[in-house]
Automatic annotation (TrEMBL):
Belongs to the metallo-dependent hydrolases superfamily. TatD-type hydrolase family. Keywords: Hydrolase, Metal-binding. The keyword Transferase does not apply. Transmembrane segments: none annotated. This is TatD family hydrolase. Pfam families: TatD_DNase (PF01026). The keyword Ribosomal protein does not apply. InterPro entries: Metal_Hydrolase, TatD-like. It comes from Paenibacillus alba. GO terms for molecular function: hydrolase activity. PANTHER family: HYDROLASE OF PHP SUPERFAMILY-RELATED PROTEIN, HYDROLASE, TATD FAMILY.
Amino acid sequence: MNKAIDAHIHLDMYPETEMQEIVSDLTEMKVECVIAVSRHLASCKATKQLKKDAPNQIFTAYGFHPEQELPHEAQLNELISWIREEANEMVAVGEIGLPYYSRLEAEEQGLTFELAPYVTLLDTLLKLAAELAKPVVLHAVYEDAEIVCDLLEKHGITKAHFHWFKGAPHVVERMMHAGYMISITPDVLYEEEIRTLVRSYPIKQLMVETDGPWPFEGPFQGQATHPRMIHAVIEQIALLHGLTAEEAGSIILENTKRFYGLSTLY
């Protein structure tokens, strides 16, 4: 079994004991490291502290998750100032994006949802990423991904990682041609939509993730989400691309190291 990298996990959302067990398990489970993303300023600070305890196993991304209430201006300014100060320590700006699921839930309840302020927030954070010359970790699915692609082009950002992506074929085509990365979760073992996406997407633009502690179904039903699950994801990607697990694992590992600049960090 090759070593692998969990390219997207919310370590700060795990209970303390469980999080510590995960980090201590990584070497045995052949998980070289994880990319720990953040949701807001307090999350950023917690993620930074986790890295201090395992600097060669945890690499950090700082941002503001879109599936929550918008920050006040003072909160946003404080977050941006903090990210600027920590720019040399982080590997990306993230998680950032647009609130597809919050909007969907509101619309299903017959409520009005104003997307424009979230687009403005994302535009601000992408401008920051461009200023800092950092990759971005994106929460952007279905029709939201087209808006995000437009904003990426506006800011000249080419290093974009769409995590747990889902979208229409024409959007997938646009992302492939732009060279954007996507990461695949354990639901590739039981969701045909994701399996179809993997078949069509170049393996040189794939990474793997858990998005932990988000739970999964199928063969993972009832299990706590753990980075070790990414090995099963790699096996599925290998099958869908007609490769051996070793071949796929090697390519995906190199993809992740290259995208996040990890080869020069350890």
